[in-house]
Amino acid sequence: MTRARRAQQRRKDAATSRVVGGLLALAAVAALVLGGWWWWDSARAVDPGTYVAPSEISRTTSEPATSSSTTATKKPTKKPTKKSTKATTSSTTAVPSASTTQAGVPAPPGDPTRVVVTTSAGRELVDASLIPTYLDAQNVLAPPFGTAGWYAEDGWPKPGHAGASILVGHINHGSKPDVFWNLPQVSLGDRVTVTYGSGRTVEWRITRSEAATKQQVPRDDSIWDHDNPEPLLRLITCDPTTPLNGGHYEGNWVVWAELA
């Protein structure tokens, strides 16, 4: 090989090395950027079952529940009787004013405003405001993000009144925990306290807590027991360990409670 050709080959090899080096450098930068994004995105998300203090969960928002965190509880198959419906038409509180608790004490007047769930060890799992919540056009029961709702359709009791009252809330909002995030962590014997605008409170003891499909929940009369003579409480959210289907979790988590 002549001297001229050897020099030409060296220049070609050097150019090739610079191109390869440049590509490797770009690949390294891309890996850092993508790796950093993945780390940042994972840092935002919280794994289901991880405790998050209610004080760290975002409060009431006006954003409607349209994402994957919706409770999506369909209309129950058990309907209020005509008697119970008629008894509510003359009262803006949706229940007869003479309703009493198990101990014969008059049920709190007005509307419930807050729900708190506390473990037997004193750890707070839920601390959320309560608003009246109704079925939407698709017969789905879901309050806005950042708040919990009490089922306020005619014939359904408020917490502390005779019958099973229903509280619903979201498990998460995108990658962020919502007000019922810790609800699946409850244990039997934990306490639920509902506060009314008057300052009155009613307290329940959790007797059952389990997952259920969204096909089972509307058909389970132990949940929608509106005509029970005793004041009962049911809390419903999504089960974040189930797959997403059409933007919604396939399962619910349900908690049953009786007066403490």
Count, helices = 2
Biggest sheet strand order reads 2-3-5-6-11-14-10-9
* CATH architecture call of the largest domain: Beta Barrel
Instruction: Say how many strands there are.
Output: 14
Q: Which structural class best describes the helix and strand composition?
A: alpha+beta
Largest sheet: 8 strands, mixed, barrel
| Beginning-to-end CA distance, first to last residue | 97 Å
Specify the CATH class of the largest domain: Mainly Beta
Q: What name is given to the CATH topology of the largest domain? A: Sortase, Chain: A
Total separate domains:
2
Low-confidence stretches: 19-44, 66-70, 82-98
Mean pLDDT over the full residue set: 77
Any idea what the shape is? globular
Helix content: 10-25%
Percentage of β-strand residues: 25-35%
Element-level helix/strand string: HEHEEEEEEEEEEEEE
What oligomeric state best describes the polypeptide chains here?
single chain
- CATH superfamily heading of the largest domain: Sortase
> What value does the Rg take, in angstroms?
27 Å
In short:
19% of the residues lie in helices and 29% in strands. It has 260 residues and is α+β, with helices and mostly antiparallel strands.
Search tags:
260 residues; alpha+beta; Sortase, Chain: A; 2 domains; eight-stranded mixed barrel; two-stranded antiparallel sheet; 2 helices; 14 strands
Question: What is the fold's blueprint, element by element?
Answer:
Layout: H1 3-44, E1 73-74, H2 82-89, E2 112-118, E3 124-133, E4 140-141, E5 148-151, E6 163-168, E7 172-173, E8 176-177, E9 191-196, E10 201-213, E11 231-238, E12 244-245, E13 248-249, E14 251-259
Parallel strand pairs: 3-5, 6-11
Antiparallel strand pairs: 1-4, 2-3, 2-9, 5-6, 7-8, 9-10, 10-14, 11-14, 12-13
